[in-house]
Amino acid sequence: MSGDDIFQLFAYLLPAVVTGAIAFYFFRLHTRNEEGRRRFLLHKDSQKDTLPVRLQAYERMVLFLERISINSLVVRVAPKGKDKNDYENLLIKQVETEFEHNLSQQIYMSEECWNIIKAAKNATIQIIRSAGMSATDSPDKLREDILNQTMEKQSPSTTALSFVKKEVGELW
After folding, report:
1. Which Pfam families does the protein's record reference (predicted)?
2. Which residue among 55, 81, 101, 168 is buried most deeply as judged by most CB within 10 Å?
3. DSSP 89-105
4. What does the pLDDT profile of the chain (172 residues) look like in tens digits?
5. What are the boundaries of each domain within the chain?
6. Residues in contact with 124: Cβ distance below 8 Å, sequence separation at least 6, in sequence order
7. DSSP, res 106
8. Could you tell me which residues come within 8 angstroms of residue 112 by beta carbon, excluding any fewer than 6 positions away?
9. Average model confidence (pLDDT) for the chain?
10. What is the 3-state secondary structure (H, E, C) of 16-85?
11. CB of 84 within 8 A of CB of 116?
């Protein structure tokens, strides 16, 4: 085989290789586009089913945050006796019970949102405990101390609630 034969073979082969490469590129582009379209349609169909459930989970977490807000909690849960420590434990138990009742909602929201909700719960418990360390001896005085602590700064529930609202707004 001479140089001219090789050159001629290359001249015939080059358009076939270019055409094959272009066909491969367009075929790959087409399959990616179809895959994206199918994924979009599946996501769109699943949104019809999952969006109401997710919104319901966010609604439950808003209710949880409202129920554990210090003002709401102290007004809703009255002391049952004269012991300050019993009342402190009762408040903490109420927060923990509310949280445990809503644990399953975490699968419907982002990790960041769930962590903020947990932080609000823990901060609320911390406020109750720090007020319980005061020199008060009655549950009514403990209620006042807890409310006084939250009057000076924003409630942890309020901060978490604003984040939940922002995240729900991003769902649309």
Report:
1. DUF7935 (PF25589)
2. 168
3. HHHHHHHHHHHHHTGGG
4. 788 888 888 888 889 999 999 999 999 999 999 999 998 888 777 677 888 889 999 999 999 999 999 989 988 998 888 888 899 999 999 999 999 999 999 999 999 999 999 999 999 999 999 888 877 788 888 888 888 877 878 889 999 999 999 999 987 7
5. 52-170
6. 68, 69, 70, 73, 95, 155, 156, 157
7. G
8. none
9. 89
10. HHHHHHHHHHHHHHHHHHHHHHHHHHHHHHHHHHHHHHHHHHHHHHHHHHHHHCHHHHHHHCCCCCCCHH
11. no
pTM of the model: 0.72
Q: Which residues of 31-68 are buried (b: 16+ CB within 10 A; e: fewer)?
A: eeeeeeeeeeeeeeeeeeeeeeebeebbeebbebbebb
Asked whether the beta carbons of 124 and 68 are under 8 A apart, the reply is yes
Residue 84 tokens read as 């300050």
Give the relative orientation of helices 111-132 and 84-101 as an angle to the nearest 10 degrees. Answer: 170
- Residue burial 140-166, b: 16+ Cβ < 10 Å; e: rest: eebbebbeebbeeeebbbbbbbebbee
Maximum alpha-carbon separation in the chain? 109
Task: For residue 36, give both structure tokens.
Answer: 């994206």
